[in-house]
Specification:
Blueprint (H helix, E strand, L loop, with lengths): L3 E3 L19 H20 L1 H32 L3 E2 L3 H5 L9 E7 L6 H9 L8 E8 L3 H8 L7 E6 L7 H9 L6 E4 L5 E2 L3 H11 L4 E10 L6 H23 L11 E4 H6 L10 H11 L3 E11 L5 H22 L3 H43 L2 H6 L2 H29 L2 H7 L2 H21 L18
Parallel strand pairs: 1-5, 2-10, 3-4, 3-6, 4-5, 8-10
Antiparallel strand pairs: 6-9, 7-10, 8-9
Helix pairs in contact: 1-2, 2-8, 2-12, 2-14, 8-14, 8-15, 10-11, 10-12, 11-12, 11-16, 12-16, 14-15
């Protein structure tokens, strides 16, 4: 009989000052209202000068965020900071040297995939006596609980029932799963994941090689239904760029790494030391990566791939992406509460990287439609106000950002498509501006939800994939 645990109080969530349980602190509210009031007065008194200043500030912020991302991409292409562990090296570790490994698998409303999930976890090349697999199921999700209990599971499996309550989020479930976990190393997989069967062994070897300050290994993520439609192709290219280029590039720049939502492997003692995940942050992975960096710990990228299901439905994709953007904004607001402390903990390089990447990711998507609209307006109508808002120095700066920036991004998408190794993805990369427009739609939704429902977790529907056609 598989044991079932119900935990009443985990006591793991971060200190209040590092939690997204409050979107804005009182000083942030005062500062925000002060800036808004100053901008309003300035627009009323000096409308043209204020408009030019705002456009210049947005252009400069866009340029700096773009340069930082392109530098990360270039560094990763030139000298990728990846930890490689061969199959032979992974299998060579004797069983007696393998630590107990805790695998946390949060699942909500996933009754149809539970049996396949358990089969995939059983296929991991790791001795069962050293596994502590914990299925994290919500108390009100009776169908998934019943599906889990209907499957014959070995003693390495434990069902953890997460009590119903607010917030109902993946990070809250992970904190419940961490209580009583036996592993020296902890990893998180999503219910639809198909991890590399040797990934746990590779992580053990990588941790043995790494400096003790390396607290986390982020494995690479990709998709098993890349060729289903154009959306899944774009999504696959983006993930290829993110995990094979941008994250290794951030390691090269010694910037803080926002983690992916799955296949991140932690030293359990350090994970508990930083108090686990923030249950109120809807990108708990990105937030945890920053908290690790603030305490002097490092993250590295492990060259091992977990396959997931790419979102093939536009509405479902926008829900998922808006949650990611909202979480990045939450993460920036939380860690920017005390900028001088943050600068001291991360150093100048890490501080700049945090602002340019964590704030820059939603910023690029948010600013794009504003510049697109002004460009279209100028070519269609030629209104004098647009000409007035762009004096020569600002016009040429904006033109540089538009031409050089877009061409550089096109190039990075094409290279990423080639690296993924599929001809169809190269063709899809030529149509990527449509994908950028979808990103802007998602970030607009994220801004609205940040105000109206900051900790609301929009469930991503799985099981929409079709047989691979690539």
């Amino acid at each position: 009989m598989t044991p079932t645990l119900t935990t009443a109080n985990v006591g793991l969530e971060p200190w209040a000052d590092e939690s997204a349980s409050r979107t804005l602190t009182r000083p942030q509210q005062v500062a925000g209202l002060g800036v808004a009031a100053a901008m309003l007065v300035s627009l009323l008194v000096w409308p043209l000068a204020t408009g030019i200043l705002l456009i210049a500030a947005a252009t400069l912020a866009y340029l700096l965020a773009l340069i930082y991302r392109l530098m990360s991409f270039w560094l990763a292409i030139r000298r990728p900071e990846l930890i490689h562990v061969t199959d032979e090296e992974a299998r060579a570790v004797p069983v007696r040297r393998l630590p107990v490994y805790t695998v946390l698998v949060p699942a909500y409303r996933e009754p149809s995939v539970i049996a396949q999930l358990i089969d995939r976890l059983r296929a991991m090349e790791y001795p069962r006596s050293r596994l502590d697999i914990r299925l994290l199921l919500e108390e009100d999700d009776e169908e998934t609980i019943a599906a889990a209990r209907a499957v014959q599971m070995g003693p390495e499996f434990t069902v953890v029932i997460v009590p119903h309550g607010i917030p109902k989020t993946k990070p809250k479930a992970c904190n419940y799963g961490l209580v009583g976990a036996r592993g020296e190393i902890v990893t998180v997989y999503d219910a639809e994941d198909r991890p590399d069967p040797l990934q746990l062994r590779r992580a053990v070897v990588a941790f043995e090689r790494a400096d003790p300050s390396v607290a986390c290994l982020q494995a690479k993520l990709s998709y098993y239904n890349a060729g289903q439609n154009m959306l899944t192709r774009w999504f696959t290219i983006e993930y290829g760029m993110w995990f094979s280029s941008l994250l290794p590039g951030l390691v090269s720049q010694r910037g803080p790494l926002p983690l992916g939502g799955t296949s991140n492997h932690f030293r359990a003692d350090i994970l508990r030391q930083v108090r686990g995940w923030d249950p109120y942050n809807v990108t708990e992975d990105a937030d945890l990566g920053i908290r690790l960096a603030r305490r002097g710990f490092q993250t590295r990228v492990l060259d091992s791939t977990t396959l997931e299901e790419a979102n093939s439905d536009v509405i479902n994709w926008i829900k998922q992406r808006s949650r990611w953007y909202k979480g990045y904004m939450q993460t920036w607001l939380v860690h920017a509460r005390h900028p001088r402390t943050l600068r001291r903990e991360l150093g100048w390089r890490g501080f700049l990287g945090f602002n340019l990447f964590i704030a820059g990711t939603p910023l690029l998507a948010l600013v794009n439609p504003l510049f697109w609209a002004m460009t279209a307006l100028w070519f269609l109508v030629h209104p004098p106000v647009v000409l007035q808002l762009f004096p020569a120095w600002l016009y040429y700066l904006g033109l540089f950002v538009m031409i050089v920036g877009n061409m550089s991004l096109f190039y990075s998408w094409l290279v990423s498509a080639r690296l993924v190794g599929c001809r169809d993805l190269v063709v899809a990369s030529l149509l990527v501006p449509i994908y950028w427009a979808l990103m802007s739609l998602a970030v607009t939704k994220a801004v609205v939800q940040l105000v109206s429902a900051p900790s609301f977790w929009e469930k991503t529907v799985h099981g929409l994939d079709k047989p691979e056609t690539v």
